[in-house]
Amino acid sequence: MFLNTLSGRFLVLTILFVMLAEVFIFVPSIARFRQDYMANHLERAQIASLALLADDVIEPDLEYELLKNAGVFNVVLRRDEIRQLALSSEMPAPVSDTFDLRDPPAGTLIMDALARLLNGEDEVIRVIGHPVQDAGLLIEVTMPTAPLREAMLDYGIRILALSALISAVTATLLFFSVRQLMVKPIKGVVSAMKSYAAAPEDTRRIIEPSASVRELGEAESALKSMQTELTSMLRQRERLASLGSAVAKVSHDLRNILTTTQLFADRIEASEDPVVARMAPKLMNSISRAVNLCERTLAFGKAEEPPPALTLVALSSVVQDVIEAESLAVEGSDLSFSADVPVGLMVRADSEQLYRVLSNLARNARQALVATNGVGEIRISAGEDDASWWIRVSDTGPGLPARAQQHLFTPFQGGVSKGGAGLGLAIAAELIRGHGGSLSLGETGPEGTTFVITLPKAVIDNEQAAE
Ligand SMILES: Nc1ncnc2c1ncn2[C@@H]1O[C@H](COP(=O)(O)OP(=O)(O)OP(=O)(O)O)[C@@H](O)[C@H]1O
Ligand SMILES: [Mg+2]
Fold first, then answer.
1. Do 228 and 209 meet the contact criterion of CB atoms below 8 Å apart?
2. Per the structure, how many domains does the chain have?
3. What residues are neighbours of ligand 2 (ion), with CB under 5 Å?
4. In terms of pTM, does the model score above 0.90?
5. Are residues 384 and 434 in the same domain?
6. What is the C-alpha to C-alpha distance for residues 98 and 104, in angstroms, rounded to an integer?
7. Whose CA is nearest to atom 2 of ligand 1?
């Protein structure tokens, strides 16, 4: 609303204050006006009475004319102890009040003036004063109040109209000055703040102090240093966040590599060489400490993977590597791995990342099978159609637990296996998304679970994509 704006309030307040100031001026000036009015009539009456100086007796018609012109009913002018001049005409009513203009106190003048304004009755009053130019000792007239009151009202209205005009002009001038000097710069600061809030990491949006009003300029400078600090803190936080998530991902896969190493080390423990056999437990300890460290680190954040270095990769060799590493863990059990990848099938992928994805999926399947009864098969198959390559990782296992299904691909949420961080599927899905492809759950149930990876064949031309 208009009244809630800074300039609106200034406008209203200015009008109020100017009006208030005018009231303080109005009251004494209306009292002054009344005093002048009466003094003026005394003077006119005095002049009229001078006619008697020429002639001791004057015609009643002339007397009436003189009094009418002076605006009074009677005049008594005492010139000295003895001589006294008097003109008189008929009064419409008896005298109701007497006012003495010789040295009246200011308060009385004001009170009398206000009383006259409020009293609308036409009365006859007596006014006493000093004659002008020392032409006597005292002059006394009787006069009607109606013309006096009318003149006072007329004067009052003129003063009020003038005050209204002055306050309107002042308020308008002030309104525009406030707008120009304060509202505009404040709006500038507010919009600078909004723009900064929309993208606080963008240093171009930090405010440049420009206000000429000192207080506003100081506010702008304070805001600038706050924004600068905030932006650098945000940047630092971003860097720390990505560092943290990178560490989390590295830890995750490092742990997987280390567990594979643990399997090799297990074998070394059985060596007949006494030196090797003695060192093996120490090696085992070191590895489990490293695994523990990785696991603790995994409690932190999620990470941005570097973009994949896409090349044409022989899929079967990657699959073979995965199967070899995973088979080590299940050697001697009833778990088997198989691959059904067309010979010579080349896919466009980052071989390292693809290896990580496949080994995450195979490892999940192995863990699920081992956790149920240790019997089953894990199969990696692949193929292609016109638009994409697909790779399926399936098992004959127990199926995904409900919790894992609800939070599939959400970091730290879907893991239900003991010791699992719940990151594997999330990382795998992110890596595949980085390839422009997708990782999805094919099917799951007591008969087994299948995850499907699709990788697009189309190569995106960035310049075309931008068009
Ligand atoms: N093939 C599968 N069969 C049955 N359950 C599975 C299968 N794959 C994944 N899961 C379930 O999904 C959950 C989430 O898997 P995910 O790989 O994301 O985490 P994790 O294996 O628990 O931990 P980690 O981060 O070490 O991989 C697993 O805990 C497991 O319960
Ligand atoms: Mg896993």
1. no
2. 3
3. 364, 424
4. no
5. yes
6. 12
7. 365
